[in-house]
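Lay summary. Proteins are chains of building blocks that fold into shapes, and those shapes determine what they do. In this project we predict the shape from the chain. Here is one chain we studied, written as its sequence of building blocks.
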Amino acid sequence: MASKLLRRVLIVSDRSPRPSSRSLPGFTSSRLFSSSNSQPLPATASSPPPPPTTVDPPSSSSASKFGSKIRNDSVRSSIKDPELAKFSAIADTWWDSEGPFKPLHLMNPTRLAFIRSTLCRHFRKDTNSARPLEGLKIIDVGCGGGILSEPLARMGAVVTGIDAVDKNIKIARVHADLDPGTSNIEYSCTTAEKLVEEQRKFDAVIALEVIEHVANPAEFCKSLSALTTPGGATVISTINRSMRAYATAIVAAEYILHWLPKGTHQWSSFLTPEELALILKRASVSVKEMAGFVYNPLTGRWSLSDDISVNFIAFGTKDGQ
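And here is the predicted shape, written in a compact code that computers can read:
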């Protein structure tokens, strides 16, 4: 029954329009990635909720405060308290490659390939070097258990990993201590907004699979921009608010394949590539490249593509001063 329903989901999703990075307005440059396997992501309940008929625009008044989950007292942040509770409940499974974060573990090599390529080109680093990010100060916003921070550190970057869930940070520290190669990571239970107040600056600011969980994407992007040095880089990945994404990233992944806990994603919280590019532009970050992530169920692997209809990642640069 589940497999029959999955086939129907995939058939419906294939009929949805597939926007390409070619159609995005305002790019000074655009790099297209090709893939011969553009299969949609099988995403994670018995009866999935219908997508909302309307989507409320991001509101600048929806910022929330954290309580005891932040090491310091309440800190202004755009992340929603229910999202903190959701991820705190599964924090122990960050390094379980077969657990709730399995999709991120599978996607990680592809995410890193995009980050390595774009940062090396922008900062004129040797992508073939064993430590191509040597000398760069990078912040991993919403680092979770550190599954992205650790490989960035092994590539030579001085990494700051921050997360609003204290349990995530404790797990990240314990795991990083197991490898001397990740000693150049500083983990902190805090928020991007707090570091802006401290006037911290980084060569590259990375926030992967985070913006769809914040209450105010525009304010969040302003914080990311404020953390980026003029001429520095910003990398964000998220899920497109398309019907194809609803069918695959919610219905399939959460309700059929149970890759993710039910309710992990809210379709109305997704941003389209055009919306993300506009929000970043208003925050003084110009999107230069965008690529999609596609999942091949036959190989169990992800690859980069110019299909940005479901999962996509954007690279931008902070306007110089």
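What the prediction tells us: The chain is about 30% helix and 20% strand.
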